[in-house]
Structure formats: structure tokens, C-alpha cells
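Entry type: protein chain
Record version: 2
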Amino acid sequence: MSRTLPETLAAPDVDLLSPMLNKEGDSWTADYQGLTLRTALQPIFSISHKRVVGYEALIRAFDNDNAAVLPLHLFGLPTSSAENLLLDRLCRYLHIRNYTGFHDQLNWLFLNVSPQVVTSGTQSDSFFGQLLEKTGLPPHRIVMEIVEQPTDDADRLRETVAYYQKLGCLTAIDDFGAGHSNFERIWNLSPDIVKLDRKLLTRATEDHRARQILNGIVSLLHQSGCLVLLEGVETRDQALIAIDAGVDFVQGFYFRKPSTLLADIPTQADDFDHLLSEYKSQSQVRRDPTQQLTQFFTGYFQATIEKLNQGMAMPQACAQLLGHPTVSRCYLVDNKGVQIDDTLVSDAMANSLDPRFRPLESTTSADWYRQQYLRQAIAQPERLQVTTPYLCITGAYMCVTLSLGYYYRGELRVLCCDILANPTDGIRRQG
């Protein structure tokens, strides 16, 4: 028989919600408007640890015939803020009651909390403190997930997040990368964990540039003091993208689907050793071209520097380098990182320069000291340096820079050479 609370009850506490829970074997269920609610757990894995470090609790609803009810329909049932609050608290109560009897008593429980409930509830959600006290679940094992979306009361949201943090829980921003994401929310709320929206992963799967952006977002979040979880991992390729992006945790159907059979949920991952071995193999393949570039162009650089030391002018000394089909530019820099004369552009690049970036073409006296390849060449003269692909400011195309420090009449200079990361970039950008 279904048990409900009066609609006028605005803030149901633990004792008033308790009659809605039922013990069913080793787990608990809850009654809500004629439906049976169950806890489903989806494991969250640490890539480095190669094991489960937490579980996201998800609600599953079933009708009287034990047919599944879509979550969208379940959360569409409340018709008031009071009913929203009741359902939210009932779900959290059910999840924590089930988790206290779960076989894994080490790792985190990720709980979703509705932003509407957060901002409409009391300033400090005393219900949650009561719930932890009643069930005996330590707050440090809880990660409170807040969906990333705009709110009419940012101050109340910040106060509520601070309450959970003060209580001893971790906090997480969910769906970062969706429509309303911004780093201001990260700075204001200071979450412990940021969950990246799966759309970022979908785009990274389809577009190499989106993959680079994903890697950059992860790096920025780490610099903001947040651990990063990538959800929605459904394929092996996406798992490898997640590993390469540097995220800390992964979640998705590729590793484990959510399950209401709580006793059967494993704590170990099956595939991480193979995944990491494959990643290492792919990473080694990606490093090899760098080594090949160094080996291939060392002779070119030595011949060019020999001509420069003999007093030959830059255009003649660099003619062989610039004649190579992948080389776009050559330029000379002093020991302070300041460019000597203007950049030499290959004939192929000169014919495909994008006029939209003409203001950036002249680089006489430009200061390149901020660039890592320049500092490395100054610190390690007579050793050819090579970068990973990056966006060249002089033409807004992806390039790789080779740089070699050498001595000219007792003064250190650096010969630099840009190579197109994609040989068609210079032409394609005009299209």
C-alpha cells in the first residue's frame, strides 16, 4: 500500500519520511504516489587506482506491475515546491539507507540534489545532518552533486554548498560543459569534484580539436583545485580519450551500468590494465614522430648554422630548410628571446597566407621568451628542441617548432623553424 505525506508539509524531516521506506530483503525501497522506488548504483572508477572509488546513486521507479517508470515521468509528478522537496529528500533517505548496508564501506556515495530544492530549502539543510546522524553514515563518504544550471538565488546556492562542505561532505558540480557552464561557478562554489558533461566527450570523439579543448578544460579545472570526473564513457575509444585528457575519474556504460542489484556490484575494474597498456602504446607511437623530426632535421639545422657562422645572410643560409615542403617559417632569436630581423616565409606558405591575419605577420623584434621551446633552446644550446603541436600566433594555424641554440661570435643565438602540423592548414584557412 502506498503511503504519502500531506501536501501541506513543506519540510518533511527524517521521522516523517521513515514510514515511506520498506525493507525488502537486504535492501530498502520507498513508496511514492503508488510507485515503488529503488536505489541503483553506478560505479565510478579512478584511472590511476584502477578500481572503484565511488558510486552514483540513481533512483529507479516501478509501477504496481513492476514495470519501469522513466525518471522524467517520476520527477514530473510533483506539482509544488513542497512536493519537490519531499521527493528529493525521500530519494536521498532511500539511497543513504541502502548505502549504510552496502558491502563497500570505504568509498564515496555521490548524491544528486536538485538546484531548485537547494535554493528553496532552508539555509542549512538540517534534514541532511539529521539523516546522517540517524543512519550513522560518515559525511566524508558523501559527495553532493549539484547540476550546473542558472539559479535565481546564487547566494543561497553558495550558502547551501558551504553548509555541506562544513558538514564534512565533498561537493561536486554536475554536467559542467553543458549550456550554462562557466568557471565563475567553479570559483564561487569551490567544489571538490567537477563532473564533465558527456557532450564534451562526444565532441572529442568526433573532432580532434575538441579533444584538445577537453584536455585544456581538464588542466584548467586541476589548476582551480578540482578533481575531474568524465561521465558518459560508452566505448573503448572514449575510455582512451578520457585517459589521455588527464581526468581523475570515469563513469559510464563502458565500465559498468547502474544496477539495483546492490549485492552484485563489483568494486574492481576488469579492463584498466589493458586500457592503460593500449594508451601507453599509442602514446609511444605519438612520441616517435617527435624523435623522427629531431633526427630528420638535425642535419638541416647544422648545415644552416654552419652557413650563418660563415657570414651568409639568413635567406641564403635557410634556403634548404625553407625548401622542405613541411617548413613554413624560419627566424633567428637572440639570447634574451628577442627576434633578430623579420621572419622568412617559405614559398608555399607565402602563396597561401590568409590575409585576415596580416596584422600578425611582421615579427621583427618580437619577444618569444615566454615560449617553452625558446627557453629550452637557451638552457640547452646545441641540442635540437621540438614542441608538441600548438597554435601559431602569426597565422593562427597549428604548427610544431624546432629550435636550436648555437654560438655566433661568442653570443648565444637560437635558430627556429615552424613546421605545419597539418600541411593543408595554410591553404584551408582561406576557404
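Comment: Residues 1-10, 424-431 have pLDDT under 50 and may be disordered.
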